[in-house]
Amino acid sequence: SWNVKIKTTNGKEEDNHFDKVVVASGLYSSDNPSLPTWATGETASDFNGEILHSSQVLKAEQIAGKKVVVVGNGKSAVDLAVASSNAGADSVTLLSRNAHWPTPRKIADLIPFQYVFLSRLGQNLVLGLTGPLPGCSPPHSSVWHSVGQYIMPPIFKVVELLFAAQFRNVTGPTSPFNKVGVVEDFYGYAQVLDYSLRDKVKSGEVNWKVGAIESFESDGAVLADGEKVAADLIICGTGFQKDYSIFDSATREKLNIESDGLWLFNHTIPTDVDNLAFVGSELAVISNISGYGLQAAWLSKFWTGEIVASKQDMESEVSEVKEWKRKWMPNTPSR
What element of type H or E holds 190? Predict the structure, then answer.
């Protein structure tokens, strides 16, 4: 059984005992933002402006009239760069370490992306390139991969060229074309965008740079290449960190948390900790409602004995999935 200590809204602590525990706290928490080391390091004290995490930017008044630098290249960073421009910032710079692939809302400005990316067609195109997902793919997937591994790379290269052309970003430091594959990048840093950033960059309302902050001066940031970027406000669109501190040290050791996340049987059950499950907190999906609903339904059947798996079976599947994902997905817990 589990001993769970709860602090109530009035500050009172209670000890409770439960047979099972489900962590369903979601993927992100403003209580645990992921910040670059420079954001809290000694050199940050040289900067006279503000350094905020994206979760702290709540009002247009925080941005209006300021020289804004947004750090990152995920959905939050892109949204903040566009929103800062719309909120009346004096200037907006989007600073990204690496180029990532955006997915257009309509492929070739004609086909809604979900018809391809969220369909059996899209799934099978990817599996043709990467190979079958262990434990989930039909038998014919291996046959398809034996052919698809040769014919899908040039097809996806055409897709990359199309996407880059749609976003007017075929060449240059901010273009991901010929730097990273669209498939692996999508599974680590998926973002579906309209053309707002593209148009803001073209008009000069947003200055998009590839680089990293090295240090600060009173009125701006100095990049690793020595360039200085003027700033009054730096916003870190750099995501969130996982926090497993609610568990005792023995449980954390058994969870065996690795650099690319927590590996679970069927993305839900830790193989070495009994009566514990994670629903909606360790698995990134496109559709939260249906994805996590299915996860919860599966867990109920597993815990009531309708679905049976031995510890050996669970460990074997986790090992196979880990090997498959690490072959082609980015080294990130959001994979």
Answer: none
- In the numeric block, the tokens 């939050």 are attached to 76
CB within 8 Å of 25: residues ≥ 6 apart: 280, 281
Whole-number Å distance between alpha carbons of 85 and 90: 8
Which residue has 């701006």 as its token pair? 220
Question: What is the number of other CB atoms lying within 10 angstroms of the CB of residue 67?
Answer: 18
**For residue 298, what pLDDT is reported?**
97
Q: Measure the CA–CA gap between 69 and 92, rounded to whole angstroms.
A: 6
> At 106, is the secondary structure helix, strand, or coil?
strand
SS3 assignment, position 126: helix
Burial 76-97 (b: 16+ CB within 10 A, else e): bbbbbbbbbbebebebbbbbbe
User: Are the CB atoms for 76 and 239 separated by under 8 Å?
Assistant: yes
At residue 258, φ and ψ (nearest 5 deg) are -105, 175
| Nearest to 54, CA basis, from 25, 37, 34 | 34
Q: Find, among 118, 112, 108, 106, the residue nearest to 194 by Cα.
A: 106
Kindly state the helix (H) or strand (E) to which residue 119 belongs, with its residue range: none
Please, are residues 206 and 92 in contact by the beta-carbon 8 Å criterion? yes
Output b/e per residue, 99-119; b: 16+ Cβ within 10 A: bbbbbbeebeeeeeeeeebee
Confidence category of residue 181, pLDDT binned at 50, 70, 90: very high
pLDDT at residue 26 in the model: 87
Q: Token pair of 231, please? A: 């700033």
Average pLDDT of the chain to the nearest whole number: 93
The one-letter amino acid code at 300 reads S
* Assigned token pair, 174: 């901010």
Residue with tokens 């290269």, as numbered in its chain: 157
Q: Which pLDDT score, from 0 to 100, does residue 335 have? A: 60
pLDDT score of 262: 93
